Amino acid sequence: MTRRTLAVVSAGLGRPSSTRLLADQLAAATRDELDRRGAAVELHPIELREHAHDVVNHLLTGFPSPALREVLDAVAGADGLIAVTPIFNASYNGLFKSFFDVVDSDALAGRPVLIGATGGTARHSLALEHAVRPMFAYLRALVVPTAVFAAPEDWAGEGADAALRARIRRAAGELADQVDRRPAAIGPADPFALTTSFEDLLAGRDPA
Amino acid sequence: MQFGVFTVGDVTVDPTTGRLPSEHERIKAMVAIALKAEEVGLDVFATGEHHNPPFVPSSPTTMLGHIAARTERLLLSTSTTLITTNDPVKIAEDYAMLQHLADGRVDLMMGRGNTGPVYPWFGQDIRNGIPLAIENYDLLHRLWREDVVDWKGRFRTALQSFTATPRPLDGVPPFVWHGSIRSPEIAEQAAYYGDGFFANHIFWPKEHTQRMVGLYRQRFAHYGHGTPEQAIVGLGGQVFMRRNSQDAVREFRPYFDNAPVYGHGPSLEEFTAQTPLTVGSPQQVIDRTLGFREYVGDYQRQLFLMDHAGLPLKTVLEQLDLLGEEVVPVLRKEFDALRPAHVPEAPTHASLVAARDAADLTGAEGGR
């Protein structure tokens, strides 16, 4: 049985948080999909609120605290990432952006990512497409086609729950497909590994 | 083991008084700090090099030449010399001249510099930081060792039949350290040439320094310069002391909280837990510093950052008294007792001349 890890990042600020609720549902659905494909899935839920001060400190000092280092390694070393943010001012919130600003710029290259968001009304839903998706495109992540937005009305009312559930299932299936077709992740890259010989450096041969 | 101070040369408001020293005051204060370092028995004074405010030391050899004339035994060094944006030909000339004037009391630490605009101001591109450091240093290394150099590279105009003057004192170039916070390529570069490696050690957790120094030691042995334990390692450090540790914390906190680099970020308590910063009594500084060798091995040079973040000169000189009178004598004795016989001291001009003469003698005998 293949072992798979999913990092589940939630940038919700409230407690309890509907953003975290959506993240948990996306994670559970993806785990079930991978389960069906014969993988053993380990979830790493990451509530950014708990690391907010460390994220700011990292921005200011240039290095992470030990606790934030573990979180960054969990994100960089996962087979797949679920990233969910509340929409503020027509975009991801500042905590979400600040966190991904301290993730190593190569850490998510080629990594399957499922994006989700919550917001006060459904009018915010396209922020996923014009703000969140481009950020992960810049990081060269592989963002699955279905992004999941949950508005307040999705959590209640006639038939609404069913519509959100269907979107979650579709998105989770897409993420599971992408994770499943890849070899298992080997963990975060070693920042101290030499990737070139000194003779090459001296000869001006660029390894990249 | 060598002990000393290194300075960034920042002109920063004293947050407790709101007073901003003039550039002139700061430059004179740096000189006073160097003279004090010799007076209290420290071995090394190293100055940074910067080309933007609020920093004053843009011309290190001018300052170090002046200090050389006013000191007897202090080793003069840099932290760092910008190998990326300086012309390696000018570095070869300036530091050979300084070496003559200081009768050999000179070494240098190469660094890339991390201020983006400095690169274009000097006609370079920060994205070429590593290739510039590699190519420029290789040229510098040759200019000090070959009387006539023919050279062609990517970043500077070619040289035909060029001789850098003056030639190094006694034909022996100044010892070179390579400083880097996080680039394994620079640890590799130091190892390749058998030069020293200096870990900044101030802004990053110790695990980081441990990995960088470990890599350098392993590659130093790989290139045949000795065993990993014989590689030449220097560390930075940052301390603030008062006899009573609570006084140290109380007095240093406003400077820490407003410091240019990490101010307004982590708390003093978080930063002292996560980095080698020590704020407390001289005994606490001794204990913490002795602990460094447990993760980098026996090392050759310890430099302390003492004069930044707007600390007034009077306070810095008091710190140097404590460092020279109470801390360094104990560290010197303890480190020396712990260091095995096969681990060398940091090279000096005298030891490099002796090593060269011994090698010449062996070579001459072998030829007979």
Automatic annotation (TrEMBL), chain A:
Organismal lineage: Bacteria, Bacillati, Actinomycetota, Actinomycetes, Micromonosporales
Enzyme Commission designation: 1.5.1.-
The protein's name in its UniProt record: FMN reductase
Molecular function GO labels: oxidoreductase activity
Domain (NADPH-dependent FMN reductase-like) ranges: 6-155
InterPro entries: CE1759_FMN_reduct (IPR023932), Flavoprotein-like_sf (IPR029039), FMN_Rdtase-like_dom (IPR005025), NAD(P)H-dep_FMN_reductase (IPR051814)
Keywords on record: Flavoprotein, FMN, Oxidoreductase
Record Pfam families: FMN_red (PF03358)
TrEMBL record, chain B:
The keyword Oxidoreductase is assigned to this record: yes
Superkingdom of the source species: Bacteria
GO molecular function annotation: monooxygenase activity; oxidoreductase activity, acting on paired donors, with incorporation or reduction of molecular oxygen
Cellular component GO terms, alphabetical: cytosol
Domain Luciferase-like: 1-295
Pfam families, per the entry: Bac_luciferase
Keywords: Monooxygenase, Oxidoreductase
Record keyword Oxidoreductase present: yes
Protein's name according to its UniProt entry: 5,10-methylene tetrahydromethanopterin reductase
Organism: Micromonospora sicca
